[in-house]
Automatic annotation (TrEMBL):
<dbReference type="InterPro" id="IPR002048">
    <property type="entry name" value="EF_hand_dom"/>
</dbReference>
<dbReference type="GO" id="GO:0005509">
    <property type="term" value="F:calcium ion binding"/>
</dbReference>
<feature type="domain" description="EF-hand">
    <location>
        <begin position="44"/>
        <end position="79"/>
    </location>
</feature>
<feature type="domain" description="EF-hand">
    <location>
        <begin position="80"/>
        <end position="115"/>
    </location>
</feature>
<protein>
    <submittedName>
        <fullName>EFCB1 protein</fullName>
    </submittedName>
</protein>
<feature type="domain" description="EF-hand">
    <location>
        <begin position="137"/>
        <end position="172"/>
    </location>
</feature>
<keyword id="KW-0677">Repeat</keyword>
<dbReference type="InterPro" id="IPR011992">
    <property type="entry name" value="EF-hand-dom_pair"/>
</dbReference>
<keyword id="KW-0106">Calcium</keyword>
<keyword id="KW-0479">Metal-binding</keyword>
<dbReference type="InterPro" id="IPR028846">
    <property type="entry name" value="Recoverin"/>
</dbReference>
<dbReference type="Pfam" id="PF13499">
    <property type="entry name" value="EF-hand_7"/>
</dbReference>
<dbReference type="InterPro" id="IPR018247">
    <property type="entry name" value="EF_Hand_1_Ca_BS"/>
</dbReference>
Amino acid sequence: SKSEVECLVKLFDTLVAKASSQFAGAGFDRTVFRDTLYSAFGMTDDVVLDRVFSTFDKENRGCITVVEWVEGLAVLLRGTLEEKMKYCFAVYDLNGDGYISKEEMFQMLKDSLLIQPADEEPDEGVKDLVEIVLKKMASTYLFVTFLLQDYDHDGKLSFTDFEKAVRDENLLLEAFGPCLPDIK
């Protein structure tokens, strides 16, 4: 609504005023953005926050403008399922090639693997997890459902594959890390 947009613009102006950056009132940088999403939504995963910043920063200037801020938060807070699917897919598609590859899954899962055997390197544990998931041997229903959509078994998922999986199971929207605020 108009009043919500006005509130977002006021918040933007406050954040820009607090930011001491080279963007001189045009926007705020990654640090301010991350701090804001952390305090507002409890988002803490650095990899996810960097990817969220990249999806907001559409012109790749290194700062978030008022238009990017309002449009980005509109998707996060009021977006349709379609908009949220496109947003989440963009967060997970680290190289922007239109697919979520095995390597991208690894990067997104790497920091979310909490418990690892003491004698195993963290990266090895994640690689093992990705392999298990890609071979459809995972014990969780969500990953199995998600990867069943990889019809050509090339180890990567297109947006169409992602969309089909999410429509079947909405929890898959954030399969590789929390990039949307919770309902609260």
